[in-house]
Amino acid sequence: MPLKLRLSLRNRMLLFIGGAVIATFTATVSIVAMRTADYARDSSLDLARQMASTEAARITDEIRQAAATARGVASMLGGLHESGQVPDRETIHQMIRRMLADNPKVMDVWAIAEPNALDGRDAEYVGQLGSDPDGRFAPLWVRGDTIQLDVCKAHRKPAPDSDFYMRPLKSGGEVLMQPIVYPIQGKNIMVVSYCVPIRSGEKIIGVAGVDFAMDQFQEMVAAIQHGEGGYGFLVAANGLLVSYPEQEAWGQQAAQFVDLDTLQSRLAEGTPLNEKTTSELDGSKAFATGLPVVHDGGAPWMLCVVTPESHALAEATAIRNLCIAIGAAACLLVLILIWLMANRIAAPLTALSVQMHRFAEQLTRTGKEVLTAGNTMAQGATESAAAIEETSASVEEITSMVKRNAENSTSVDHAMGNTAELVASTTSSMQHLSESMAQITEVSRQTQRIVKTIDEIAFQTNLLALNAAVEAARAGSAGAGFAVVANEVRSLAQRAAEAARDTSSLIEGSVSKISKAAEVASQTESEFQEVEVAARQVTVLIKEIAQASSEQRNGISEIAKAMHELSGVVQQNAAVAEESAATAQEMESQASSLQQFARDLALMIRGTHPDDASPRDEAAGEPFGFNGHTRAKNDSRILVSLEGAKN
């Protein structure tokens, strides 16, 4: 698994802001260095061009001064010939000598006339000084210790030795000959000839010229030193080196010593040269700046100044180094400021992330407790709702039973009323019966003989009546038993009627029994009166029970209604508890997300988890209100909320 580099906020700020600052500084220094290098190079090359231009102008002036001498000789000879008054040659020689004497930079002055073209007296001067073997006018005045007269000889030779004469003669224009190395007084001296045709009217009658050494040019070029290791060199139109730091290169082709691709083309075109090259002295990189040396004698020469790149860019390098030093110091200062700022920013954020992590943990624990309490409350509310529903059903059932009891109490009340009336009626009957029995006793006494059987029947009747009374007392509202007794009484009466005829003798014994029956009837009457009183009391109690049952029914109905409403409230509480549990679960999820966010924030700020927070980080959170007192208050509020939810 690849390792991930964890950087704190401070290090990230250092990395990104510092990197941006360093990148900006690097880009700025690069741009400044490039611009400065271009400016320094251009300035150095401009200076080199100025130096080359100055020296090229000096060389051009020297060539023109020499050319002026040559032109003066040609003009003098052409003018004499054109005037038709050509003096003797000795006079002309002295005139030419005077021109050499007046121009100390010229080595010699010479003039060559076509055969008999000057004065027509060539034959007279054969063998004389200043004339060639054919007598042609060909004086050569040479500067040495003294100015001496000699004779030109090379014009009689074939090309290229005679080019100095034949080229201007044929072209009719001035010619600056290419440098030639001559051994003079034991030294190799490079000499250049400037040749001017002698015109007489429209006719060219000869050529005049001067020779001048290149040592003065070489001294001027050697004095060119643009920076340490810089040098100059002078190239003739044919590519020969006129001047170069190494003397063995003089008179050699420049291509053998100079690494310039466009040199020949620039010479041919006569245009300036600007090219990168390599210094032939130390092999370092350099810039070559060349300007044409323009003259009137044909193709221009080229004066080049070689500037070492280190010199051309020295100022730019110094500025670059200064910018680097200043920028490095500025970057260091910026990094220090970023470090301090990052510490100021990261410290409270670190403490905040630690407190957020702790708060998220506390919130997670609280959420779990709330979730547990909510689940418990929801479960309890569900169970309470079920119990209340069962209780409500039981209350409804009890209400129904109480209602039936109230109805039964009312029925019993009516039945007891009827019973009381029946007991009262029975008591009245018993009174009548007692009276009748008294009468019967009186009659029985009178008719003992006849109604012994009747007495017996009466006795039985009394017994049956007693049984009927007892049965009636026991049966209450059941009249069926009484009816049965009545039937039996009738049956016994029939039998008694039959037996009366058979048991008259028994009447006598029944008299005493009737007396006893009378006593019993009287006692029964008394008991029936007590039963009547008790029945009335029972009736009153049953009325009170019926009334209490009615009130109880109303109260239970109210209880049932309240239980129904309580069931709705409990169900609503159960729904709220479920929603609270869901909210607590969502709160726990959000707390987990907050905890993860706190971890990510701590990881972003410090590069570590908040569990690794140092005491200093924890203490840093106090100014932000996350102190212990605040946490205690928050915790207590949460616990109170939890207890309220549980209750």
Protein described:
There is one protein chain. 65% of the residues lie in helices and 12% in strands. The protein is an alpha+beta fold. The chain is rod-shaped, with a radius of gyration of 79 Å.
Quick overview:
The protein has helices spanning 9-83, 89-102, 163-171, 215-222, 263-269, 309-312, 314-446, 452-475, 480-502, 507-606, 615-619, 628-646; strands at residues 108-113, 139-143, 147-151, 175-176, 180-184, 187-200, 203-213, 231-235, 241-243, 273-278, 285-293, 301-308.
Largest sheet: 7 strands, antiparallel
Structural class by sheet pairing and helices: alpha+beta
Alpha carbon gyration radius? 79 Å
Helix content: 55-70%
The residue-averaged pLDDT reads 79
The percent range for strand residues is 5-15%
- From the N-terminal CA to the C-terminal CA, the straight-line distance is 51 Å
Shape category = rod-shaped
State the order of secondary-structure elements, H for helix, E for strand.
HHEEEHEEEEHEEHEEEHHHHHHH
Structure keywords:
rod-shaped, seven-stranded antiparallel sheet, alpha+beta, 647 residues, 12 helices, 12% strand
